[in-house]
Amino acid sequence: MPESRDASAPAPSAVDSPVEASAADRATAQLAKAVASARRTAELTLAATAAGSGLSPAYISQIESGSANPTVRSLAQLAGVLGLELHELLGAGRADITDNSPFPARFTTLPGLTAMPDSQGTWDTTAHGVTTLRSRLIRGEPGDHARPVRHVGEELVVVLAGQCRLRVSDTARVLNPGDACHFAASEEHEISQTSDDLLLLVVLTKE
Predict the structure, then answer these.
(1) What's the predicted TM-score (pTM) here?
(2) How far apart are the first and last CA of the chain?
(3) Taking Cα atoms as reference points, which of 98, 95, 85 lies closest to residue 30?
């Protein structure tokens, strides 16, 4: 005689609704993007991240592809080797309006750079105390960007006068007045072949 199912046994769990599944998929994809981005910013290979966190390279790869459901402990281990707090790793892919605290506006009168052919330098036009965005006006040599650099966040370069060559990863273009490029600053980039009258507006953000 067939064995009957115990009436006291829990019923099979209900299948997630499409809305719940969609929210879970978005959260998983967001976490995957945040972990991958943080590892690239830290310039760590999968092997190095695995060695420092105690997790396997395959498991970390699954987290970054969104095919794994990591525990809080695993994420805390990853955050540690990536130089982040757990809440920073979890929030790395999110834009939160609460981060944009009010700050005093800064009105800046810039020097007459176009009328000063021999002027060189960098002018910071960012409001005081702001950490999420920096705005700089650069005349002449592009400072640390004259050599290959990488850093967190995004960058926007706009040529106001003159000419330069901008390389981002394997792509290089000569930029003329009115040309601009917006890119992920974690990609290696540099500015070269600058003309004497080069005037750049550079805006940098924190990721």
Answers:
(1) 0.48
(2) 65
(3) 95
